[in-house]
Design brief:
single chain; 185 residues; five-stranded parallel sheet; Rossmann fold; alpha/beta; 46% helix
């Protein structure tokens, strides 16, 4: 066969996902538990792509400010392809700007999938403690001013229609609550 095979613009539902695949954006402050929850969710749902944009970003050479946009664009393209295959995609990503959220919804729409936006929340002291214990170099810039800016942005993002809120009450409780939220979404 020569040339590129064209795919349908929508993904049909399956017995496992009667409403079709979903792009699940797990949003929240750094250290709130997005990546941990995404890994736990993916482990319970075989075939789910746990698409950590920070991992994609680490694969692109260059200065950190120069890699954010290419990583997000590449990640969203990966999401579209996986959704078209009929599988869920979960994206643990801080999205603190209202103009960025539609990019995720558009990616889901392009693949004929549903978009579900979940805002993971935890007490400030819990987040601060996690960040203090996290030695990841990508978090060196996270001082009080940066966190306050992200928190302010998330308050704006949380006002968007359809945002589901999930309190971090421990991993097993959070996974169960995520199951409930996504079952109702």
């Amino acid at each position: 066969m020569t040339g590129r095979q064209e795919r349908a613009s929508t993904t049909p539902p399956s017995p496992e996902r009667p409403l079709g695949p979903r792009l699940i954006l797990l949003n929240g402050l750094p250290g709130v538990g997005k990546s941990t929850l995404a890994a736990a969710w993916s482990a319970r749902h075989p075939g789910t792509l746990n698409l950590d944009i920070d991992v994609v970003r680490s694969l692109i050479s260059g200065a950190a400010p120069d890699t954010a946009e290419p990583a997000r664009a590449l990640g969203l393209a990966m999401a579209v392809e996986h959704l078209r295959g009929g599988h869920d995609v979960v994206v643990p990503q801080l999205v603190a700007r209202t103009d960025q959220v539609p990019r995720f919804a558009d990616a889901a729409g392009t693949a004929g999938a549903r978009f579900v936006h979940v805002l993971l929340e935890a007490p400030d002291d819990l987040v601060a403690g996690r960040l203090a214990r996290d030695a990841a170099t990508r978090r060196r810039y996270l001082g009080p001013a940066a966190l306050a800016g992200y928190a302010a942005g998330l308050r704006e993002v949380a006002l968007r229609p359809g945002v589901l809120r999930l309190a971090d009450e421990g991993l097993s409780v959070a996974v169960g609550r995520l199951e409930e939220l996504l079952g109702a979404a």
